[in-house]
Design brief:
Number of helices: 11
Strand content: 5-15%
Oligomer: single chain
Strand order of the largest sheet: 7-6-5-8-9
């Protein structure tokens, strides 16, 4: 059987993604009632390669492996031969002989694809400059817990056409919901990713129009990692794109607000938005743990019905 990787949401079928969401909810509920008693990955090891800093990603993956009875290894470029110029493919071949799966948080998506091509064990994209599929598993899980199926609903992305935006576009394709993308001119998502989604995705430049009657609203920081030098320009370009309580008032009465975090209060969101009951970002952040447990379990063990 060929090794499965999770580099974007398009690597799995819609049915497999639906299974992952339901499985993550089941794992979470079991954890609440029985504690960390389910340990299907005893003596299994996940290598975690970090070229970008992280809080939620590192803690969630490391905790997932510990609670599943396995072990996670934190690897940074300065701690490995990657930092001394070893070819990506060689590192992939070496780690394939030693670990059961590899999680990578990096800059270049092409580099991640190169690694996965040479890897004999599953590779998980924990963020690249182009995609962040693990976050979308947690986001859709959060919606599903609170509202049921996201199929046919309307979600709004406000902000840069970045890796999170690209993953929301792929999510609209795979989970069959409508997505409105609202960004300043010049900050649109990649055209090929947008066009592949067809009429499921609509592009806006006016946040006030985009949010009307929406079921879900989400955003991200205006300047991501590696864009700090553009911060002042982006703050000017994104003026008027801050998500506020009054903006949510024009959406559906039961609208949910998501944010992948960390949030810059007073920039992409108002100072108090995360305290609004419509904001479910803490549940969303916690669901990274459970969604990634389901993902790791699926990649290593396949469908599990327990």
């Amino acid at each position: 059987m060929a090794t499965r990787h999770f580099l974007t949401l398009l690597d799995f079928s819609p049915d497999e993604l639906h299974y992952l969401i339901q499985r993550a909810i089941a794992i979470k509920n079991r954890m609440r009632t029985q504690g960390p008693s389910y340990t299907p990955l005893a003596n299994r090891t996940l290598a975690m390669i970090f070229e970008k800093s992280s809080t939620r990603t590192r803690v969630s993956f490391e905790t997932a492996m510990a609670q599943f009875g396995g072990h996670a290894l934190f690897l940074s470029p300065r701690d490995t031969q990657l930092g001394r110029g070893e070819p990506i493919e060689d590192t992939a071949r070496v780690l394939s002989e030693m670990v059961d799966a590899v999680m990578i948080r990096t800059f270049s998506h092409a580099g991640l694809e190169t690694y996965a091509t040479a890897s004999l064990v599953p590779v998980i994209n924990a963020l690249t400059d182009d995609y962040h599929p693990c976050q979308l598993l947690a986001d859709v899980m959060t919606w599903t817990e609170l509202k049921g199926s996201i199929k046919g609903r309307t979600a709004v992305w406000i902000g840069d056409g970045n890796n999170m935006c690209h993953s929301w576009i792929n999510a609209a394709r795979q989970f069959d919901f409508r997505l409105r993308i609202c960004c300043p001119k010049g900050y649109e998502p990649r055209r090929d990713i947008l066009e592949a989604a067809g009429d499921r995705v609509t592009l806006f430049h006016d946040p006030g129009q985009a949010v009307i009657d929406a079921d879900l609203v989400t955003t991200d920081v205006w300047a991501s990692m590696g864009q700090e030098e553009e911060k002042a320009k982006r703050e000017a370009d994104f003026a008027g794109f801050q998500v506020t309580e009054s903006m949510l008032d024009t959406a559906r009465p039961d609208v949910l607000f998501l944010h992948c975090l960390p949030a810059h209060r007073g920039e992409e969101i108002s100072e108090t938005l995360l305290d609004d009951p419509r904001a479910v970002v803490w549940q969303e952040a916690g669901n990274r743990l459970h969604a990634q447990k389901a993902l790791i379990e699926f990649l290593l063990l396949g469908h599990v019905e327990t």
